[in-house]
Amino acid sequence: MGQVDQLRSGAADNRVANVFARQIGGEVETFWQVGRHVLARMHGKIEIAGRKLLLELFREKSFAADLGQGTVGDAVALGRQNDDFEHFLRKIVGCHQPISGFVRLCERQRAATRADTERFCLHPLCSVVTGVLVNRFNPYRNQRTDFMAPFLRILGIETSCDETAAAVVERDAEGRSNVLSDVVLSQLDEHSAYGGVVPEIAARAHVEALDDLIDEALKRANVSLSDVDAIAATSGPGLIGGLLVGLMTGKAIAKAAGKPLYAVNHLEGHALTARLTDGLSFPYLMLLVSGGHTQLILVRGIGEYERWGTTIDDALGEAFDKTAKLLGLPYPGGPAVERMAQCGNADRFNFPRPLVGEARLDFSFSGLKTAVRQAATEIAPLTDQDVADICASFQKAISRTMKDRIGRGLQRFKAEFPDLPEKPALVVAGGVAANQEIRSTLQALCDKNGFRFIAPPLHLCTDNAVMIAWAGLERMAKGVVPDDLDVQPRSRWPLDSKAGTVLGSGKRGAKA
Ligand code: ADP
Ligand code: MG
So what's the architecture of 281-458 in CATH? Predict the structure, then answer.
């Protein structure tokens, strides 16, 4: 059987992979290196011969499937930059519609992709190549793990927003955790000049950092890839460019190391963290308040989530960030607003407390932001004391709102689970959980209602790869089937698939 036939039939082995790797780059020896090589070449170009070879090898079906995984440099830009190749590609794919028709990205994502490609001259095919490679040789396709391993160790990867992170975490048969390494690189410096997360810059920064971060995580954990049982990578929700970078890398590693892949919902990572830190039993309530999410979630079990409340407009962290920007405070806005609020008069402005008193458990913060703008405009130019007073009043309005919303949530929980063997628990996660006033409001609320208030350490409340590895571990330990390497990143991926769309929710913010 020739090489091409072997590859087509899926009868690939290391020997074939090596040959193929040499054909593509001439400098790499193993498949893992091919994956790295392809990612590393996002700055440059892949030889046209290599691309043609890929198309010849994999033909239309798998190629078209993998176009759906186009990354920051996806095939959308191809038509603009390389007409000849698009023509060739259309012929191969056997269709006359533009390549963009194959890429299942919404227009906004495509625009971000185009901008990124134009700005940085990323090569459009790089991720497609990785996707094709790893899909073809995945030994875990459609395979079920029925084992209940007594001891598991997972490498986690997180790239959904503005933190690049990798971690190695273990879990024993009793569910006890051991974090072997936890490496996070924040992109704060890259985004601060813009007053918010810029998707193209974020994706770009993930590409540059991720390989080294994974190496570092393995090194700190004192393990190699052969010592881990699986790879867990965030595959949504989040910014599509970053998700693609992390998921593609996870796939490449899973393939190269011969390990199963778990494509993890970022929100599930947040939801299960308290089991890692506090050994919490199901069910419990989780409040996620970050730059991209404001959700009250009932965590019934692994993979069993009910969204009780969500924001109908801005996320809470987003409201802090926008208010800070409006007042001329630095990004990220949350810590800046909290600092200023410490020396302000919280009673000077009577800002609205959206949805307070309503039975539904949703949130709304855009009206509050508008009220802040109006107040600031009326008294402009603002003195430092004005800014401090606005921040303090803004924070007070938020605390009162949270008190009402979450208080109702606790009541509902008690009504639904009146006979729990343990004291019920409210878990908080997300960057806004750092806010002392909001924390003490929630703590007091829990004390009053007989709940435990669980706030994992801040570095595990914000974006990190420990929670992704842990979510993968929990699923693996439960015997959940690993994901196929065809798995797609999802910019929107509600934890509770049955929860309907709330008007406006999730359409704004860094993770929209
Ligand atoms: P994301 O997942 O959206 O990146 P993170 O969990 O990383 O969110 O948290 C970042 C968000 O948390 C930002 O919106 C930031 O303003 C907010 N934040 C951080 N610290 C505070 C604070 N002390 N008070 C209020 N908000 C904060
Ligand atoms: Mg973040």
Answer: 2-Layer Sandwich (3.30)
